Amino acid sequence: MSSAAPTNIAGQKHALPSYLNADNLGPWGIYLQQVDRVTPYLGSLARWVETLKRPKRALVVDVPIELDNGTIAHFEGYRVQHNLSRGPGKGGVRFHQDVTLSEVMALSAWMSVKNAAVNVPYGGAKGGIRVDPRTLSHAELERLTRRYTSEINIIIGPSKDIPAPDVNTNAQVMAWMMDTYSMNSGSTSTGVVTGKPISLGGSLGRHEATGRGVFVVGSEAARNIGLDIKGASVAVQGFGNVGAVAAKLFHEAGAKVVAVQDHRTTLFDPAGLDVAAMMEYAAHSGTIEGFRGEVLRTEQFWEVDCDILIPAALEGQITARNAPLIKARLVIEGANGPTTPEADDILRERNILVAPDVIANAGGVTVSYFEWVQDFSSFFWTEEEINQRLVRIMQEAFRAIWQVAQDNKVTLRTAAFIVACSRILQAREMRGLYP
Ligand code: GLU
Fold first, then answer.
1. What is the CATH number of the domain that holds 324?
2. I need a surface site. Which of 144, 290, 328, 434 has the fewest CB within 10 A?
3. If you take atom 9 of ligand 1, which residue's CA is the nearest one?
4. HSE-up (13 A, CA, CB side) for residue 372
5. Does ligand 1 have an atom closer than 6 angstroms to the CB of 356?
6. CA of 165 to the centre of ligand 1 (A)
7. Quick one: pLDDT at residue 24?
């Protein structure tokens, strides 16, 4: 357990994200504990488990840009390829002021597990820049994205490693990445990133895919514990691409969205918030702050009376401190790594079911896979076909994991790790050690 403040490569301390303190592990520490928990179930493949405990490759880059006021600013960027045994690296790029190498390592590892859990033919990767993009102009953001892409150009490519959107990145950022890579390589290469605009080889349904996957997995999990979505109350942390879409789909299925928290505020209405109006409001103001509803204190969010809790923001949110207060029967992890291992234990003891991130939020990368396939074949599918295939893959993956959990009397997280890590390590063993 390390309590040291993360530093940048020059050794300078920077502000600690709220979840990183002396009491806990940080995202990479959380991931390592999750691997330790699955190891006893891996049989002879446990011989290879060390492979999962270190990234295959990690690139740290300096990203200098000229700001609009003429000064030069330097940002630290990362691209980590955790495992490439099952295929090219795949995973998003995050722009956030708290991004660290350790965080990107954990996020890349969770991508390896996620991609194997839903059985898409990818390894795991992730990237990020430590920057608060809200402080940059549109032109500065474009320069930052292009310079970052040029710096990681040596390890990405349609058959090497395929970035995608994550926290604070979107289709426009992907378009700049695709263009930069294409300009550098001398030919238009749509398959180098996913989550692109539709006009540039993006896929229908990709924008909503992560939230839709959260809904599909959540519905399966709810059914298995006899919880009717119709009339169920839902609390959502995060109102971005994942949280807002999940809230909308639960609302459309007859659930009541009673609480939403974003980076600025926490809103509560026991009669149900107007999700559609809130989405419109957030699209204009960039936050739900000021929208109608009772304003709660930040910590009160975890105590809200609800049946379903959806953390869909950042990692390390459900901790030993707030897990005892949660009232929900079901937690669906839209975010990556929102629950610490200690909190996992508390939720399990309290008989609260956790649908873990590596399956619950895998809808995004699943449709990313469809996008990549469509780009390669230059033949595009209808939204209906995409959603049908997405639902089928998510349901099948969830049902298989549910069965493994029952058979081994383990949590869904450990079951998902059993399925995924076995796939990764089987591939590792078949390929063998080179030389
Ligand atoms: N950033 C998303 C995730 O965490 C999507 C990654 C992708 O589509 O490659 O799963």
1. 3.40.50.720
2. 434
3. 91
4. 25
5. no
6. 6
7. 60
Neighbours of 121 (CB within 10 A): 14
Q: What is the pLDDT of residue 2?
A: 38
Residue 383 within a domain: no
Considering the entire predicted model, what is its pTM? 0.94
Chain mean position to CA 195: 14
Q: Are strands 72-83 and 124-130 parallel, antiparallel or unpaired?
A: antiparallel
Measured CA to CA, the distance from residue 65 to residue 119 in angstroms comes to 39
- At residue 4, the pLDDT reads 42
The answer to whether residue 126 is catalytic is yes
- Residue 301 DSSP label: G
Residue-wise pLDDT for 40-95, tens only, equals: 999 999 999 999 999 999 999 999 999 999 999 999 999 999 999 999 999 999 99
Atom of ligand 1 nearest to the CA of 163: 9
User: Could you tell me the residue range of the domain that residue 152 belongs to?
Assistant: 55-187
- Kindly give the number of the ligand 1 atom that is closest to the alpha carbon of 336: 4
> Is the shortest distance between the CB of 128 and ligand 1 below 6 Å?
no
Mean of pLDDT values over 359-368 = 98
Q: Which of 90, 114, 126, 256 is catalytic?
A: 126
Whether 336 lines ligand 1, by a CB cut-off of 6 Å, is yes
Q: How would residue 25 be classed by pLDDT, with cut points 50, 70 and 90?
A: confident
pLDDT tens-digit series, residues 294-337 = 999 999 999 999 999 999 999 999 999 999 999 999 999 999 99
Q: Do 165 and 126 touch, CB atoms closer than 8 A?
A: no
Q: How far is Cα 183 from Cα 176, in angstroms, rounded to an integer?
A: 10
350 shares its domain with 329: yes
130 in a structural domain: yes
Spacing, Cα 366 to ligand 1 middle (Å):
9
Average pLDDT over residues 264-278: 98
Pocket test for ligand 1, best of 166, 214, 217, 375 (most atoms within 8 A of CB): 166
CATH number of the domain enclosing 122: 3.40.50.10860
- Identify the DSSP state of 157: B
Number of alpha carbons in the 13 Å side-chain half-sphere of residue 376: 10
